# Entry
Amino acid sequence: MMARPLWRPLAVALALVAVAALPAVSAQQRSKSKKERTSPLGYEDTPYLPDQPWRVHDLKRPRPPLIRPGVRPGEPPSDAVVLFDGKDLSGWYQRGKGPERGKTFEARWKVRDGYVEVVGGTGDLVSKDKFGDAQYHIEWAAPPRIEGSGQWRGNSGILIMERYEIQVLDNWENPTYADGMAGAIYGQFPPLVNPARRPGQWQVFDIVFEAPRFEGDKLIKPAYVTLFLNGVLVHHRQAIIGRMAHRRVGTYAPHGAEESLALQDHDTAVRYRNIWVRRLKGYDQQ
Ligand code: MG
# Structure
């Protein structure tokens, strides 16, 4: 005979205790017709939550701001800053590279058919708005025509705060170092898995970024990043080691609380569309 599982009588006993502990008001509500049932707007006699100024179900706790979500997944919610909606680059400028280093220009990447394409040699595309703690939604596609290999195939990058790079690369049957693959924190951490699609297909980054904090010259909290690539978790609140670097370990240097988002010109014709950002606040902030 099989041993009787111990958890069953225990669960029944716990459920009975829980029902008995329900406030009398709830028993009254349950005796009413479903249409007549109501519940209190909150409570003023419940215990305080640990390390919070609020009671359990606190009547005075502010309700979160109401926002309108996108109609379909991936569409910007009403509190997002839309940086690129497929039509124009008015929210961006270009940072010169090579002989033009140090200069800035009007945005020079090509917009067509609802996307923008990197024009190699023109420099990184930089957002006019700046962001600190933020949620980013960015869609990208590697060039449909395969040229080059390794880091020369469909390379671009999401340079958060113009420094911390989430790698964009054509990973499709294209071996390269793990911490340089699509979705890598470049030169630091590979994605946990590789859910990248073929070149030419649209791919989605959903990023939650916590900006680093400095006191004077001193780093007091590193940046953290959570990243979903094509809906798959590839970084889970991973601390970033420092700014993006090639063949060395990146380090931190103090910068503003908010900085621009930049898209990298690595001289391959990567495409971007549907780019939006939400500034993040903590709980109970209106
Ligand atoms: Mg890159």
About this structure: The radius of gyration is 25 Å. The longest helix spans residues 7-21. Helices lie at 7-21, 24-31. DSSP finds two helices and 16 strands in the chain.
